[in-house]
Design a protein that fits this description.
Keywords: Heme, Iron, Metal-binding, Transport. It comes from Lentibacillus amyloliquefaciens. The chain is an all-alpha fold. It is 61% helix and 0% strand. Helix 2 crosses helix 6 and helix 6 packs antiparallel against helix 7. The model has no long low-confidence stretch (mean pLDDT 94).
């Protein structure tokens, strides 16, 4: 259980979010199931993810300041997000959490929140 503050503060703030996103997109950029729905240049995608995760885990509201209300499901509707792609995304995030050395109980709390979000993003059945 998280005892005080936010997940963002507990894991070390933006430097840790930055590390997590860097490790995550290194994997996404080479994952055969994810390549079709991501741009070849992940720079802007990673930038937006850093802003979103900062806000999502209790840090500054940089995503809203930069992009407006998150509306994550709507923003993801143009992309075919299947259960298989959801699982691939979560696999990449799970490995990135390990590589970024995010410790318990925060690692589990982060992964659980992102798992719920990933389920919510699905919009296409597996083919």
């Amino acid at each position: 259980m998280i005892k005080h503050g936010t997940i963002y503060e507990a894991i070390g703030g933006f430097p840790t979010i930055n590390k997590l996103v860097t490790h995550f997109y290194k994997r996404v950029g080479s994952h055969p199931k994810l390549i079709p729905i991501f741009p070849a240049d992940l720079t802007e995608t990673a930038r937006k993810q850093r802003l979103f995760l900062t806000q999502f885990f209790g840090g500054p509201r940089w995503y809203t300041e930069d992009r407006g209300h998150p509306m994550m499901r709507r923003r993801h509707m143009p992309f075919e997000i299947t259960p298989e792609r959801r699982d691939a995304w979560l696999e990449c995030m799970d490995a990135a959490l390990t590589e970024a050395q995010i410790e318990e109980p925060y690692r589990t709390a982060i992964f659980e929140k992102l798992t719920m979000t990933a389920h919510h993003m699905m919009n296409t059945p597996d083919k």
